[in-house]
Amino acid sequence: MQRNRQTAMDKEWSRQVDIRNQKPQESSxxxxxxLPDDFNSDVLTLLVxxxxxxxENDFGMELIPELGKAVVTFKNPGDAxxxxxxxxxxxxxxxxxxxxxxxxRSTCVRVENLPAETNNNKMLLELYxxxxxxxxxxxITIPSEQAAIITFQEEEAKEKVLKQEINIGEVPVKIYPYxxxxxxxxxxxxxxxxxLPEPITVSVHPAIxxxxxKKGEISSIKDQMSSHFCKMNMDKPxxxxxxxxxxxxxxxxxxRHIDGWSKNACDAFKKIISNYTTSExxxxxxxxxxVESDVKELVKDKVFTDMDASKGVLTLAGMTHxxxxxxxxxxxxxxxxxxxxxxxxxxxxxxxxxSPAMYSLLLQDGLKSAVSPHLHIxxxxxxxxxxxxGIHSExxxxxxxxxxxxxxxxxxxxxxxxxxxxxxxxxxxxxxxTDLFIFxxxxxxxxxxxxxxxxxxxxxxxxxxxxxRVNMVLTSKDLIIEDQGVLQMPEWQDxxxxxxEMFNTSKKTSVxxxxxxxxxxIIVTGFREPVMEVSENLGCFIVEHTRIEETVRVKSHAAVExxxxxxxxxxxxxxxxxxMKVNFDSKRPWIRLSGERIFVQPAITLxxxxxxxxxxxxxxxxxxxxxxxxxxxxxxxxxxxLKDKRFxxxxxxxxxxxxxxxxxxxxxxxxxxxxLGRVTLEVSSGDITKEKTDAIVNSSNPTFxxxxxxxxxxxxxxxxxxxxxxLQIVRSSNMQQTEIVTSAGLLPCxxxxxxxxxxxxxxxKDIVLSVLKLCESRQITSVAFPAxxxxxxxxxxxxxADAMVDAVVDFVKKKKPVHVKFVKFLIFxxxxxxxxxxxxxxxxxxxxxxxxxxxxxxxxLFWGESSESPSNEEFVMxxxxxxxxxxxxxxxxxxxxxxxxDMINGFLVxxxxxxxxxxxxxxxxxxxxxxxxxxxxxxxxxSVQLEKKGQDSVVxxxxxxxxxHSVESRIRDMIRKVERNENRRxxxxxxxxxVKWQYQxxxxxxxxxxxxxxxxxxxxFQNQQPSVxxxxxxxxxxxxxxxxxxxxxxxxxxxxxxxxxxxxxSSLPSDWEDMKGNSVVLVKLxxxxxxxxxxxxxxxxxxxxxxIIEIERIQNSALWRNYTIKKEELEEKNKxxxxxxxxxxxxxxDKTDQINHHGFNRxxxxxxxxxxxxxxxxxxxPSYSAQGYSKLDVNGHKRMYLARVLVGDFTQGxxxxxxxxxxxxxxxxxxxxxxxxxxxxxxxxxxxxVQAYPEYLITFQ
Length: 1261
Description:
This protein is of the alpha+beta class. About 40% of the residues lie in helices and about 25% in strands. Strands 33-34-35-40-39-36-38-37 form an eight-stranded mixed sheet, with helices on both faces. β49 (about 1025-1030) and β50 form a beta hairpin. It is flat. The relative contact order is 0.03.
């Protein structure tokens, strides 16, 4: 159609000329306007055909897309008029909102492809075309497009030119009719299509770009550029200008417009950007650091600031008027900072050592006025230094001034009382100098130097006057303290505060009140008049309120109570409440008397006489629950019964056992000792390598190989053997050891305890505690420590002393050691002895509490670090150490004490109980179960003794009746839980031979679930549960059993179920009776059947004469299939079929139901099961099995199984085997069973429950 249309249009142009010549007044062309974008030439052609009923050969069509117009040229001019008339009423034409008009007849042509020399030569073109066509009215040249528009005076001249092929300067040119109303030419069928020009980039100063981005001006510029048919992007350093597609849709757009777009857009963009400018200054980094804050304060957010340190250029960018206004101000800031830097560059820094006193005097002599205003002076009181900064000449002049003043200064060391010196030290020297001297016209100051008061003045006279004033004005007064309690009285504190506030202010201190070093004196120091008045008032108070206190120590708390209650008439009439007080100590066996000395002494004699006349004793009951009983309820009953007795019984509470940390003694020079309960702590100087204690401590590094300081001395003296031991211990452990113990090597001590050194006080305390605990556990009686952390660790000696002494005190308080008797701190640097002595003094006199924790350490005793106790391990768990009930007895005769003992024992007999709990399930108690038992011991204060001995395992309870029954109930619950768990494990094991559940994650290899998860999945599958919760790699999943998918959030893991029964293709025996859907059926054999006779023959083949009561065939389909699967597996593995034997297994009546349903369970093997391995035992000889391993039921009947057993390849058994041995040392292939005698077996032991099937149950008598 397109080719036909083109041909038609070419013919049309030829025909058009003829028509014009014939009827110049009519137009054969119609302009269609307002064309939609989706109208093409095909649509327009059909539309014209539809309106005119003409064929496409009757007219030509030329689309002008950029104008949204088209020109239809009819062969018959009359058709054009008719079309104009018909289109006005045509529905589709109107619906498309099209307009049509007649195209005017034109006298213009457009000439294209002009040679360069004629491109702008109007005269040449006019002459040339007048020659070719006719008179020319106008010539318009378009040099940028190498084109021109020629307007003729007559239409015939135009038509004549169109018919010619014209060359200008041997260059062929193209000529097309041009229509002014369209502002374009008609090309016929070869109309060229205009394309958008390529995008251009325009460089923008980076600072201006950042300013525009920061201010959000980009969108405004985009809006301005849109009027130039331009889209702008400034995301990159150069602005990208792209033409808007709307450019091509302009009315009358031409190549000239397209080609001129780039320049127009660029010019417009540059004009907009010209509103912004930048200004740059050379600024170094140091200069910028000086002016940065000023610049930022000046510009704020008006302009963008960029400091390029690498180029040393400061740039400001913003609106042109803003930058213009900021320029002069910026130049002043930079100039000012540059001048300042220049001065600083030439400036020097120096310092002078000047004491505070000298500085104060220099200030008095005009130091501030003696310096240049530009010279910077700063006095550092901490280091007595005057720091100077300025021009060298100014600094030199200042130093000369100071030097001259110092040369003329005088100073004198005063000999004054020590207390006055401390007073002058305690106050501000400058302020006190002003108060003492300056205000009284004395140009002097004082300072404290090397424990002396030094007065400095400008003249000798000033020094003399200053000394005289110190001696005249200042003094001190001592007050002796006999009763330290006076100082604790609120009245004393109030009085002291009152006098201090009276004479002291925030600005001036006139008097201070201090203790002497021994705290036996009060020292009042300061100005004379306040000191005399304060000391007089305080002294009167001390004398008036001093009291004495004496203590009468008796034999026990019972004696205290006896004297207090039974002898009250003897001492109450002697007391005078207003002069003396008596206190019966509830914690210690003491009677305290306090008051004036004249009344206290006679009372002491009385109480001692009363105490000496009494009989006392201690009655100890070491039974579980005894202490708890008397503590909770027996104590009250005891107190009720004692009212009418001639004796006193006191139940000894824990706090009655408190002891005091002994006082510090110094038996010899440089040796200090202190008694802490049973432990002696000694601090002395010496060489730790010479110590003969059971152990010494070596502070080392994490690899225990440190050879510097004390550690080097110890290792060198001990010899190479000890270093090798350390190395071996470190290599053999997978974990970082905090402390290790080696032999002493060549040292005289017993062992060396190596620790990881540290220097923090809390860490040092923890290490000492840990070592002492280690010594107690190893029964080490004496240990010597160096001063930890004080060598290369650099810790403060006082902090180390406190930490180490505190550790020993806490160890004695909390652990109540039995074995550790002697702890020694060896101080290599003797100057540290004082610090350790002070720490010991600080802790002396404190209470040392009993350790209330008596827990047995089960973890270390039974399992070490393992998480679970082996179920087949046999051991005895000793009950918790009994905390005894202790009673203090007091009476006036020995008979009174005997009566008291009988009464206490009678109480306990009625409340105490001991019971055993026997159950085979106890053998399966794990570590967690034993810890529960341990917790019950603590909770109920009962003794729990566990003996794991297979079926004979027993837990023995002892304690108060109600507590024993409570614990018994909990243990019964534990036993039932263990039985359930064992049954579940056994069922899981049986399931594992029938079905395997697997999972596959992300296309990796298929992995089998563990037995218990396999059991949970299969159980849920059989119960038709839709889902069940499981764990994969310790993460919980919902297992969708319908879709076979494990789901956790968005994660999906594919599940697979493998039916091993189907794989084994095992069928049930043909002689079995129909089980009618039951999983287990017991079939009683008839006595006259061949099957009965065969079993009976096996039973009696070795001479067993017991009478058979009945024989039952066990039909268990699951067990049978598991057994046959295992049998096929062994036949394939062992390469022979001689794997099965018929053997005997006796059991008790309570186990048959378990075996019938779940098979033989090796977990219930008795104590005999340890002889050849921890498995299930079967006898070859039924007589042997019947003798010792078959228990009688209530009817006197015994039970024995004739079982099929897969003994396979077997070997010799031995005690404790958990599984059969490997067939070779380097093989993972195990034997299938073990026996008592390889050449002549009498019994077999299997370790896999599925290897035996209980075929017949024989009940006999």
